[in-house]
UniProtKB/TrEMBL annotation:
Domain named Gnk2-homologous: residues: 25-127, 133-238
CDD domains attached to this UniProt entry: Gnk2-like
Signal peptide: 1-23
GO CC field: extracellular region
Family, per entry: Belongs to the cysteine-rich repeat secretory protein family.
PANTHER family: CYSTEINE-RICH REPEAT SECRETORY PROTEIN 38, CYSTEINE-RICH REPEAT SECRETORY PROTEIN 38-RELATED
Major place of residence: secreted
Protein name per Swiss-Prot or TrEMBL: Putative Gnk2-like domain-containing protein
């Protein structure tokens, strides 16, 4: 069981979440837009078309963006699948995320949802190529380690190294491990959305990693999920 902390806008919201390693259940979602649309509006029709496009466009490569409509009825969206997820599982996750997000944020023009296998976001604003530093959540293992100081240093070391690797490869995705002692390894994963530049990916990940003391101090596992990048570490293999 993990605890999650979301930071939408300027306040902190704490809540208990169920963690599903299978990726079948949402980790978190945020209905971030103050603007609404009606069920019979052009925006609603464009949203449905845009989400259908993402379900086709994303699975082959694991990332995609799409826009539908014009002016105030234009909808922009993106979806990102975890780098090791197969195309069929990616497609399933994106379709499920589309359905679930519309159900959880009815009539909201902007919303985001995270699963283990994918993340999906849409908005009436053009957010492509911009680091989303507002929509994020924290999750962590409730168990702590017995040697906090060296453990925290190793977590940061692993994730910082993966940040360098991810921002330098085409998929903006990297995983790795670090031997802690004879019997324990630390496993990590970092990833960015493909609309960012390499510099923006590195910046996004470094800012997320800098929040380790807030979310995951001495915790046996943890993650920060955002609208533009995310990381996760565990003492057991999860990829």
């Amino acid at each position: 069981m993990f605890f999650s902390k979301s930071i939408p806008l300027s306040f902190l919201l704490f809540c208990l979440l169920h963690h599903a390693a299978s990726g079948a259940s949402p980790l978190y979602h945020i209905c971030f837009s103050k603007a609404n649309y009606t069920g019979s509006s052009p925006y609603h029709a464009n949203l449905n078309k845009m989400l259908n496009r993402l379900s086709t466009k994303v699975p082959p490569t694991g990332f995609g963006v799409a826009s539908t409509g014009l002016g105030p009825n234009k909808v922009n969206g993106l979806a990102l699948c975890r780098g090791d997820v197969s195309s069929p599982k990616c497609k399933t996750c994106v379709i499920e995320a589309s359905k679930e997000l519309r159900a959880r944020c009815p009539h909201k023009k902007g919303a985001i949802i995270w699963y283990d296998h994918c993340m999906l976001k849409y908005s009436n604003d053009n957010f492509f190529g911009q680091i989303d530093s507002t929509n994020k959540f924290y999750m962590w293992n409730t168990k702590t380690v017995s040697n906090p100081t060296p453990f925290n240093k190793n977590v940061k070391k692993l994730l910082s190294g993966l940040s360098n690797k991810a921002s330098s490869n085409r998929k903006f995705y990297s995983t790795g491990e670090l031997q802690l002692d004879k019997s324990n390894k630390l496993y990590g994963l970092v990833q960015c959305t493909g609309d960012l530049s390499r510099l923006e990916c590195k910046k996004c990940l470094d800012v997320a990693i800098s929040e380790l003391p807030k979310c995951c101090d001495a915790k046996r596992g943890g993650r920060v999920g955002g609208g533009s990048c995310n990381f996760r570490y565990e003492l057991s293999r999860f990829v």
